[in-house]
Amino acid sequence: MKTPVCEMLGVDVPILAFTHCRDVVAAVTKAGGFGVLGAAGHTPEQLDVDLQWIQDEVGDKPFGVDIIVPAKYEGSSEGGKSLGDLSEMIPQGHRDFVEDMMERYAVPPLPKQDSGDGRGVPVETEPPMTYAQAVPLMDVAFSHPIKLIVNALGPPPPDMIERAHANGVLVGALAGKKAHAVRHVAAGVDIIIAQGHEAGGHTGDIGTMVLVPEIVDAVAPTPVLAAGGIGSGRQVAASIALGAQGVWCGSVWLTTLEAETHPVVKDKFLAATSSDTLRSRSRTGKPARQLRSAWTDEWEGESSPGTLPMPLQPMLIAQASRQVDRAAMNPENKGAVELSNYFVGQIVGSMNESISATRVVEDMITEYLDVIERFEELNN
Fold first, then answer.
1. Domain co-membership, 139 together with 68
2. How is the beta sheet containing 288-291 ordered, strand by strand?
3. How far is CA 250 from the centre of its chain?
4. 249 shares a domain with 318
């Protein structure tokens, strides 16, 4: 399974794990893969603590960071708006809809000390999923010995690429279309992650099987990682056959023993089929694949006012999301349990057992080798 990406990243196998859980990052890296910590939900202080912990756990083994810096969001054309200005742009009708949803599903309010400013955003933070939020996260990331930094949504900003290369750090970017990948390479991106329609989170309309070879051909010799619907050795082998030099997996780690996935959501994932996801703007304001639940149904219902653009939608729902997560810890809060969901790809239908992240990597390698052996038998 050795590919040029292995040498670039200093790993044994080209299996990259995108996860918000530092324990998964460390486990995958120690198993010979490459853990990437998703930092979008971190404060700079939290990110610093987690990266230092990972560094202490893995020693001189490599790891990376993923940050969301969308190219387009509300106010981006004006150089960004303040948190207060953006908050004023959220219509009262949308606030009323969210409050009514919490009441109808009997989701109790947060304790006063955990309720932010009462308008759906924490006090004294930058707007979520904006350049202003990303800059201090980049500052922290580059203060640690990361090997790769990835922008999860759109082209990396020029200063991310410049700072990364000045620090000897590789830059990756996700692409859902050939044109996106070509622009990324022209901007100086070192590794392209071709993410197909099946993937969890922000994703486009083109399936992985079609997208990967299209991007591989368009950006050669820049290495490409396949993403979307990948959680087994057979899918790793298929990705390599399509011309990818490795894989980028996210959903498959959400049900591992190390994962910090909400226990109610983890149980839902373990019971779900590959038909139980959909793309919805209800969490971020951009199309993102997630588990279907009462939450997504409400936003698609007749009484819904419709979603708002990024970052207004995550600002709008921030407090309600915390309410649901907190309340769902008690199974007697059935409304919160019904609403609970999270980003996940169609591979969720195969995620029916909670095993360690190390075991996931080992199983991928074993199954990949079985596929290669089968090909050799077929060719003899």
1. yes
2. 201-202, 288-291, 277-280
3. 6
4. no
Q: Nearest to residue 225, comparing CAs of 18, 26, 12?
A: 18
227 is a domain residue: yes
Beta partners for residue 35, in sequence order: 17, 63
* Owner of token pair 């992650």: 193
What is the C-alpha separation between 120 and 143, in angstroms, rounded? Answer: 31
The CA distance from 230 to 192, in Å, is 16
Is there a single domain that holds both residue 68 and residue 184? Answer: yes
Question: Would you say residue 135 lies in a domain?
Answer: yes
Same domain, 135 and 218: yes
Q: What are phi and psi of 111, to 5 degrees?
A: -55, 150
CA distance 259 to 356: 9
Q: Is 115 exposed, middle or buried (0-12, 13-18, 19+ CB in 10 A)?
A: middle
Residues 95 and 181 in one domain: no
Nearest of 10, 32, 65 to residue 360 by alpha carbon: 32
DSSP state of 50: H
The Cβ of residue 104 has, within 10 Å, a number of other Cβ atoms equal to 11
What is the C-alpha to C-alpha distance for residues 125 and 218, in angstroms, rounded to an integer?
A: 40
Kind and range of the H or E run holding 256: none
pLDDT tens, the chain, 380 aa long: 899 999 999 999 999 999 999 999 999 999 999 999 999 889 999 999 999 999 999 999 999 999 988 765 555 555 667 888 889 999 999 999 999 999 999 999 998 766 544 434 344 456 666 778 889 999 999 999 999 999 988 899 999 999 999 999 999 999 999 999 999 999 999 999 999 999 999 999 999 999 999 999 999 999 999 999 999 999 999 999 999 999 999 999 999 999 999 999 999 999 999 999 999 999 999 999 999 999 999 999 999 999 999 999 999 999 999 999 999 999 999 999 999 999 999 999 999 999 999 999 999 999 999 999 999 999 88
The answer to whether residues 99 and 152 belong to one domain is: no
| Domains held by the chain: number | 2
Q: Domain range spanning residue 295? A: 82-126+260-339
State the pairing for strand pair 246-249/201-202: unpaired
Q: How far apart are CA 330 and CA 337, in angstroms?
A: 8
